[in-house]
């Protein structure tokens, strides 16, 4: 990497981190280009240079969020003929990866805040993320659930079960202050995240067992 490429890439990463934080905290409309640049410790022109403007930065944040989730839970793929045991193991691996990302992943608070706000406020971002990653990944997880239980992968029950699995993990991030208070924990670090993951995996196995045909 050249000496000029490294600072440019760093600026781009800093702007995406600023977008995660500010779009998540205040929303897209209330976040100015000037505030984004100040948060990223760069000049206003950098946003236009790297992303073409504020809207481009917003899309880049959505794409970066999808990439971050993919790194944790794997890119969507087909599994072909797979045993119930292998399908169960794949679901467990994806769930543990998601818990790790949401609870102790680098910059998780800003990234999750951005996701929650944008998925509720921006149809464009919903469509982008659903087409690029969330939709295909959900279909893959449904296929695994179907393989693990014998249920049709496209059935309403399976689709709801997969959303419920994801939602349980997400709650421990967005409801973290309540979790800390209720559990008497001072922080939610790797040890606590590991115990949460173990509990959610046990819940997963119980749900699969109940769903088996």
Automatic annotation (TrEMBL):
- Per its UniProt record, what Pfam families does this chain match? CecR_C, TetR_N
Q: Does the keyword DNA-binding apply?
A: yes
Residues in the DNA-binding region annotation? 32-51
SUPFAM superfamilies registered for this protein in UniProt: Homeodomain-like, Tetracyclin repressor-like, C-terminal domain
PROSITE patterns associated with the record? HTH_TETR_2 (PS50977)
Q: Where is the HTH tetR-type domain?
A: 9-69
The record's section on InterPro entries has: Homeodomain-like_sf, HTH-type_TetR-like_transc_reg, HTH_TetR, Tet_transcr_reg_TetR-rel_C_sf, Tscrpt_reg_YbiH_C
Keyword field contains S-adenosyl-L-methionine: no
Q: Which GO terms describe its molecular function?
A: DNA-binding transcription factor activity; transcription cis-regulatory region binding
Write out the entry's keywords from A to Z. Answer: DNA-binding
Q: Which domain of life is it from?
A: Bacteria
Q: Which Gene3D superfamilies match?
A: Homeodomain-like (1.10.10.60), Tetracycline Repressor, domain 2 (1.10.357.10)
What is the protein's name according to its record? Transcriptional regulator
Which organism is the protein's source? Answer: Salipiger abyssi
What does the record give as the organism's lineage?
Bacteria, Pseudomonadati, Pseudomonadota, Alphaproteobacteria, Rhodobacterales
């Amino acid at each position: 990497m050249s000496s000029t490429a490294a600072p440019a890439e760093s600026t781009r990463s800093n702007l995406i981190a600023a977008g995660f934080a500010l779009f998540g905290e205040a929303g897209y409309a209330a976040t100015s280009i000037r505030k984004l640049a100040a948060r990223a410790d760069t000049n206003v022109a950098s946003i236009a240079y790297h992303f073409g403007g504020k809207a481009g930065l917003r899309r880049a944040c959505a794409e970066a969020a999808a990439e971050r989730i993919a790194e944790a839970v794997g890119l969507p793929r087909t599994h072909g003929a797979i045993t119930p045991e292998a399908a169960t193991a794949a679901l467990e691996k994806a769930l543990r990866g998601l818990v790790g990302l949401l609870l102790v992943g680098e910059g998780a608070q800003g990234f999750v805040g951005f996701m929650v706000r944008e998925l509720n406020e921006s149809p464009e971002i919903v469509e982008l993320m659903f087409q690029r990653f969330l939709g295909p990944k959900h279909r893959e997880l449904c296929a695994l659930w179907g393989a693990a239980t014998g249920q049709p992968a496209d059935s309403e029950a399976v689709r709801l079960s997969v959303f419920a699995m994801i939602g349980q993990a997400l709650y421990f991030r967005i409801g973290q202050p309540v979790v800390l208070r209720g559990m008497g924990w001072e922080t939610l670090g790797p040890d606590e995240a590991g115990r949460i993951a173990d509990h959610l995996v046990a819940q997963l196995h119980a749900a699969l067992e109940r769903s088996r045909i």
